Amino acid sequence: EERVLKKIQRKIRNKRSAQESRKKKREYVHNLEGRMSACRAYNLKLQGRVQQLEETNNDLLEQLSRLQGLLPNTSGKTTHRGTCIMVLLLSFSLLISSNLQPDPYSQPSQEEYTQTK
Fold it and tell me: What's the helix, strand, coil split of the chain in %, to 5?
């Protein structure tokens, strides 16, 4: 009789455990479905935003193309100007560096000669 009672109690515990497990699973699935629905809505919103930005980008590219068509071709002038500036900077740096280095062929002065001894 005690064995039968324990068996019945075990069946009751197992039944409750199974019910609780099914309940938790239903809650989990319901929660996942809610999250999935929210993600879908957010995804649709983002797709709309991407489409809007692509349209704006295309409009701006067309506007840029029209404005560039109105401007004369000045790429040669800027290249020439840049080359001139670089040549001037190189000349200036060579001039400065040659003045900073001592002349190896010059004789040291009496004061420099006595300081090195």
Answer: 85, 0, 15
Structure tokens, 1: 């009789």
Task: Quote the CA–CA distance of 51 and 64 in Å, as a whole number.
Answer: 20
**Tens-digit pLDDT profile for the chain (117 aa)?**
899 999 999 999 999 999 999 999 999 999 999 999 999 999 999 999 999 999 999 999 999 999 988 887 655 556 678 888 888 888 878 877 766 655 555 555 556 555 555
Q: Would residue 102 be called left, alpha or beta, if left means φ above 0 and alpha means ψ between -120 and 50 degrees?
A: beta
Q: φ, ψ for residue 53 (rounded to 5)? A: -65, -35
Contacts with 116 (C-beta within 8 Å, 6 or more apart), sequence order: 108
What is the pLDDT at residue 99? 62
The residue ranges of every structural domain in the chain are: 1-71
Cβ(12)–Cβ(5) below 8 Å? no
d(CA 116, CA 106): 15
